[in-house]
Amino acid sequence: MEISCPKPPWSCQIVRSIASLGFVACLLLEAAGAATKSGPAPPSLAASVESADAAYRHLPGSLPAYNLAVREICAAMEMETTAQFVSSLKALGVGFDSPKVALPLHDVEIAMPPLASNEMRAGIPLLLGYETKKAPLYPPEGLFVDATAIYGRVAGQRRFSILAGASEAELNRRIYPLAVNYTAAGDQLRSRAKRLAKSGFASMIRPFAASRKPQIYLLDPYDPNKTPLLMVHGLQSTPIAFAVLVNELRQDPEIRDKYQVWQFYYASGTPVLSTPRSFAPVWTKRSIRLIRKITMQPRSELSCLATAWVASFRTPS
How many CB atoms lie within 10 A of CB 238? Predict the structure, then answer.
């Protein structure tokens, strides 16, 4: 006598089918993960340094290999804090140089390469981000600087250097133009300041509710040897309106060498034009005090700038 088992209800069959599909999906995901893990691992920092050193000694014919090795070092730098990276280099007997900026360096990114040209350039373009929470002279979003990473030897000592404000460098007794992206810093600041960019209309109709006080902001590390280019935005606007202009100016080598960009922010609804003697001197004095505190410049030099700027707002008596 055969005993027949009742067939499971259709709902149970559906559950079993879903469970089987889920098991197969898990197997596929695990296999994909294993395939990813089995791929080539990135080179170690030590291997990248050795590759850069070998390519450096065979310049100029090895420039492509040199740039590739320097890029690998930069990729390792992105994965660590600055202090950790410097420590790792020191353990390998490699020195480290960076721009002399009196602010904490909190972020280093490999920037997009500059526009293609017929001239081979040395180094890897970088974007440096500095913390400005304790430096009110700079935008609260941060100070961003375009730079280039290179590897070389100085008196036989191996060194990894980050150069800012340089357009060329000597590598193995030969001068090379540097790869720099002169729009990366401006683009990063514009991306971080989207909220400010949208506040133009609100600051016009409610100027005294603006979250920021009127102030001059420096977009470049202060350089006493460069002339300030002071930009003042108009009605229903913010300094972000100058973002494209700033990028264009920074791509001009003569302007880069001679000028530094400053921008003045204010809530455009403030009646500055009707009462300039009340508002402009107060705003300017506050900014000048900050500039003198950070740059330690003589009062006379900065007062000349302040006087000229305030005078531009005065109306005929």
Answer: 23
